[in-house]
Amino acid sequence: QKEVEQDPGPLSVPEGAIVSLNCTYSNSAFQYFMWYRQYSRKGPELLMYTYSSGNKEDGRFTAQVDKSSKYISLFIRDSQPSDSATYLCAIQGAQKLVFGQGTRLTINP
Amino acid sequence: GAGVSQSPRYKVAKRGQDVALRCDPISGHVSLFWYQQALGQGPEFLTYFQNEAQLDKSGLPSDRFFAERPEGSVSTLKIQRTQQEDSAVYLCASSLYEMGTIYFGEGSWLTVV
Lengths: 109, 113
Hints:
Chain A is an all-beta fold.
């Protein structure tokens, strides 16, 4: 079993829809939870970063962490075609990041 | 520099050839990481430096892989006697301090033929 599990998709939704992306993790020692966005042939860029259980909002993006069930989510409201990318959840324990497989998301105009 | 810079962006190597991939982290960043990303997968940790000290190399897949950061700034990942399974994107990342936000470069795309 991988330390971080993420459904690879692909996921395709119409413009304006609410998108929900999810990951589960197995190691309760993980302390920091991130979502990275990766466009084709580019490096991952940090979208959201949370430490504690609960919600964190940044514009159209909401990151949610539930440490009791080891579950993290990213919600995208009013999705735009420019949101089309691969979304990677990442968990940080010690110094290094452990990534999920990534979910490939397409927003259709 | 403004971001993490990697070179070459694209490299085609013949099987058995040695390759060297360079990473120039964000200026002043203490921590430097190398990750390997296979097609359709998330990045996987290879190795970590704090300044010039290589503190964790547990992710290096074999002794053909070697990384160095001799002056605590630029880093080089070397792969000896490349094999087809080494084909991947090699991502370098840096952070200002231990447990700081990690910023990635655009990657070096290695194809072994």
